Amino acid sequence: MHILIDNKSGAPIYDQIYTQIKDQIISGELKEHDMLPSIRGLAKDLRISFVTTKRAYDELEKEGFLYTIQAKGCFVAPKNTELLREENLKKIEDHIEQIVRLAASCNLSREDILQMVAFSMEERQ
To answer: Roughly what angle, to the nearest 10 degrees, separates helices 13-27 and 39-46?
Structure first.
């Protein structure tokens, strides 16, 4: 598991940890039932407070990405396909909003955008 903390990003450290672990789970880099580093171990490796790491792990567990076994550690939870679908739909909506803003700044029509999307989808097939 790779976690990089960017002190210049403006995002809270716990959120950076949370986001990076979640992204690694969604991408499949971290597999179901993989053991994560201990909270204290990760905090030590990142040279941050264990409270910060615990907060990130707690958020991931609350959202169903991790589960904890007492005295054993934290593990990647089995994927909830509906949860992953919702996560991806949200990302798509965010990207579409960016596309709409950029298209407006370039005076692209709806048809232009749809043609661009259709072309991109054809290339993937």
So the answer is: 110
Rounded Cα distance, 16 and 101, in Å: 27
Summary count for the chain: helices (H), strands (E): 5, 2
Residue 18 has pLDDT above 80, yes or no: yes
Q: Which two tokens stand for residue 85?
A: 């679908």
The Cα 36–Cα 42 span in angstroms is 9
Average pLDDT over the chain reads 91
CA distance 84 to 45: 29
Q: What SS3 state is found at 113?
A: helix
Q: Which residue has the tokens 């976690």?
A: 3
Write out pLDDT tens, residues 59-115: 999 999 999 999 999 999 997 767 778 878 898 999 999 999 999 999 999 999 999
Smallest CA-to-CA distance from 65 within 36, 98, 44, 104 is with 36
Name residues whose C-beta falls within 8 Å of residue 118's C-beta, 6 or more positions apart in sequence: none
How far is 122 from 107, CA to CA, in rounded Å? 24
